Amino acid sequence: xxxxxxxxxxxxxxxxxxxxxxxxxxxxxxxxxxxxxxxxxxxxxxxxxxxxxxxxxxxxxxxxxxxxxxxxxxxxxxxxxxxxxxxxxxxxxxxxxxxxxxxxxxxxxxxxxxxxxxxxxxxxxxxxxxxxxxxxxxxxxxxxxxxxxxxxxxxxxxxxxxxxxxxxxxxxxxxxxxxxxxxxxxxxxxxxxxxxxxxxxxxxxxxxxxxxxxxxxxxxxxxxxxxxxxxxxxxxxxxxxxxxxxxxxxxxxxxxxxxxxxxxxxxxxxxxx
Length: 273
Description:
Elements: H1 6-25, H2 31-41, E1 46-49, E2 52-61, E3 66-71, E4 79-84, E5 88-96, E6 99-112, H3 124-132, E7 136-140, E8 157-162, H4 175-179, E9 191-192, H5 203-213, E10 218-219, H6 224-236, E11 259-268
Parallel strand pairs: 5-11, 6-8, 8-9
Antiparallel strand pairs: 1-2, 2-11, 3-4, 3-7, 5-6, 6-10
Helix pairs in contact: 1-2
């Protein structure tokens, strides 16, 4: 677990504050507006403090990756189903003296709400994918690999609720509330992007803080199946998976929509050069 330098954390918190101000000042009409603003907000952050450096890069992909799997059971006898994987992939890497020692990821499905309602709608098959994680293949674009994920963290797949009324009914707009009624499906951790700032860290800022510091996300160093999936999503984005050394990249952000990837990299030094 990496502990952020206090000045680095203050810089990061200021960037998150600007991100939230942007979300509240723009009129979000749909999930893609939220994806675009998130990708734009984390394109090229670059903070230094003490012996630490925090960088980000992000990219939009024109077509959302689609996956295909089979649902089993009495109601779904080997039925083949194709759904979108999600809306955003957040990745965190920590390099200590050039060695990759922290590597986590979270897949997020954003749900938009504008009406003054206390209900929300999500595709049942996608919900099944993001909670049960049956074996699947990426079919857009086509990959030959069969992915068999076994998440060890509830926070591997999460829901973020966005839009004018996302903050009005935080209890109702919660996957956790729905999952209380479905005991056979493992619980995910919901989080809300569009809340008014409270004292200290608000709920979504707290998520990013926990994600950076190692309290949220699947550990890809100990889960090679998840790591292979993230590497393939990097290929979809036109990125080369970074080797376990100090990261170097050319940040090419095409004006595209559909699926967003945001990567946070913290590089720390214990030894002075």
